[in-house]
Structures are given as structure tokens and as C-alpha cells.
Amino acid sequence: MLSSSSVCTLFRSMLPNPWSTINPVRSKNYLNRPRLRNPIWFVKKMRTLHNEQFTADNSAFLNEVKRETVLSAANRNHATLLQLKDGQQDSALAHWSPGLKRTGVIAKKIGQYPLWTRNGTKVRTTLLQIIDNEVIKYIPPEQYQPAQEPRHRRLWRKPYGCLLVGAENADLSLFSKEYAGLFQHSGVLPKKHLCRFIVSPEAQLPPATPLTVDHFNIGEYVDVRGKTVDRGFQGVCKRWGFKGMPKSHGVTKTHRRPGNIGAGGEKARVWPGTKLPGHMGNRWRVLRGLQILRINRKYNVMWVRGSNIAGSTNGLVYVYDTVLPLRKHCAKRGPAGQPQFPTALAPMFDEEDIWLDELHDFRKVSITYGINE
Predict the structure, then answer these.
(1) Which strands make up the sheet holding 133-139, listed edge to edge?
(2) What is the CB-side half-sphere exposure of residue 157 using CA atoms within 13 A?
(3) What is the pLDDT of residue 159?
(4) I want to staple 167 with a disulfide (CB 3.0 to 4.6 A). Which of 106, 121, 254, 303 is the partner?
């Protein structure tokens, strides 16, 4: 006859292990590691510079040729916009409809500046400047085969193409021959930065089409994608904001340590996603639903609501239409009207500086003085 202890042991062995059925609440994406180098399929960008021993006259002549090349490229961009507007291009421009996805732009984060509404509320904004954005190439959906498949590609109802956009002109003698060959058939000067945007086939643009701040309208909502500042290896107090242990009363050498991580017992492992010391920064972050409050067409600068856009000053960010369902065009809380589709062929306003109606425009007189009789 079995004893009570053996019965309890037999019954306990028949029950499943509770630790084997618990799913960890914290999770971590192992593919989201900081990238310190470009992929191997990227061509070499900068070439090795040598002392060519040019004379002063030769250097002046080369600078003049570079200046004329840039001016001719700017005139060609203006002619391309006029051809698109008049319908002289081979592909006819499509009209915008809900569900179509247009291209974004490459901007530079140049600082932060406060604005005020008419009732005196302070609004913190970030200034983004669009510098020399041009279309390099369009890849149709049947030819677009990226090295890394987009995350939601299997959920696409309609196939999307790819639009390659370049930004910021630079000295042509600094680029390698392989990198400059990417711009050979586009008629565009080599750019310092490149980015691919997923677009609908109806939103394709011919090469050498410029993208300016007129691509967006006042009041629209955008998503801004940038890379955070690289802080290196940091502890838990700076990386995760831990309070730390007390500074006195018997605490010895544990002031800024993480403490117990709660991984004892039958688990006997560190759960993925535990907040521990490690590499901080240098990761891509996206802020969604940021409203455009002000636009300056002279310098291609737009003021975007928010002061926590990822990246340092003069860092690059990617700006495109928001994916939030309540902030899109024709949504309940979205902006009124239609976007510039596929891009702005002509400016909507003649003014250089455009403000949102809710903001207080400091160019206008707000206080008037009169003579009391």
C-alpha cells in the first residue's frame, strides 16, 4: 500500500510544470541591434584623396565647372516640374484617392524653436530642413526585390514600388566611381544621402524631379524616422532611468547597480527584455502623428510639433505621411483637403512664410495704440 508521501509525489509528477507554461511578459527584438557598418552589398561611397598638385588657376577652373554643373542641374529640375505640370512626360499623373501612398523626403534636423498659439499656449517645435531632394530612380513592383523584406509586405493588398531619393549635393571629386555610377542614367548629380520610400505605382515620379517643402501642406500629420544619439555602453541609471540605491546608511558599492533581476527558482535564466546595462542609442525610432505648424518656402524649412525627434542636431531624418488611421487625409481628425499628389508641381501659396491659423503670427501687429481725446 502506498504511503501519503508517495501519493503526493506521484500526483505532483502528473501535474505540468508551471514555469514551463508561463510566457514572459517582456520581449525584445534581437534584430534591433545597432548597426555600425553598411551592408556588404553597398558600394564604396568615398574615394581615397590624393594630392593632385593643381595650380591656383586649375583649381579656380575646376570650381567654376562645378558651379556651372550645379546651376544647370537646378535649371533642369525646374524644367522637369514644368513638364510634369503641363503633362509633357510619358506617364500621365494620377489623381489622389484614399489608400494611395506617396513618397517622403529626407530632412535635416537643425534645431528647436517655440511657437505660441493665439491664447498664449507655448508649443515646442522642431525645425526640419529639406536640402536638395531629388528623385533618382523608380523601381516597379515586379522588379523591387529588397535584400531585407519589409515587415508588413505579406499584408499588402496591392503591390508597392520603390522610389529612390537623394539629398544634399556635395563635391563631386569626393565620391568613388562606383557610387557616382548609381546616378549615371538619372541625370542627377551625386548626392551625399540616399533613401528608399515605398510608394504606390500611381505615385511614381520621373528621375530628376525635385522634392521641396511644398510637398507637405500646413496642418498635415507626418511620421518622422530618425536614429537616436549613440551613447555607447551605459549603466541602468542612465540607460533605463533607475533610481539607484541610497547614498548612505550602510549601502556599500551598490549605489548605481541594477540589483536583483528576479530570475531565480526553476527559471534559472535571464528573461529576454530585462533592463540591464548595455549599448544605448544608435537605434531607429519613429514618432508618428506630428503636425506641421509652419512652413518657410525660401529656406525649405518646416516647423513640426514636438521636441523629442530622434537624432542630434544636423542629423538626418525621414519624413513621410503618417500611417495613423485617425490622422490621415479624409479621416475624422485628419487634415482637410487633399495632399500634393504625387508631389507639389506648383506652390499653393505665394507667401514665403506660412503659419497655421491657430498660431500667433509675430509679423502681425497685436497691440495698437491710439490717442484719447
Answers:
(1) 191-199, 161-169, 133-139, 210-211
(2) 3
(3) 84
(4) 106
Least-confidence region, from 53-57, 195-199, 314-318, 333-337: 333-337
Q: Give the residue among 213, 173, 206 at the shortest CA–CA distance from 190.
A: 173
Cβ-proximal residues to 267 (8 Å cutoff; 6+ apart), any chain: 19
Q: What is the pLDDT of residue 345?
A: 80
CB 237 within 8 A of CB 115: no
pTM value is 0.81
Q: Closest Cα partner for 342 from 224, 202, 198? A: 202
pLDDT of 101-153, one tens digit each? 999 999 999 999 999 999 889 999 999 999 999 999 999 999 988 767 776 66
What is the rounded CA–CA span in Å between residue 166 and residue 171? 15
pLDDT for 355: 93
Q: Looking at the predicted structure, is the pLDDT value of residue 77 above 60?
A: yes
Say how far apart CA 323 and CA 325 lie, in whole Å: 6
Inter-residue contact 310 to 140 (CB < 8 Å): no
Record the cell numbers describing residue 311, joined without a space: 537624432
What's the Cα-to-Cα distance from 320 to each of 197, 202, 324, rounded to whole Å?
A: 9, 17, 12
CB 292 within 8 A of CB 222: yes
C-alpha to C-alpha distance for 303 and 358, rounded to whole angstroms: 14
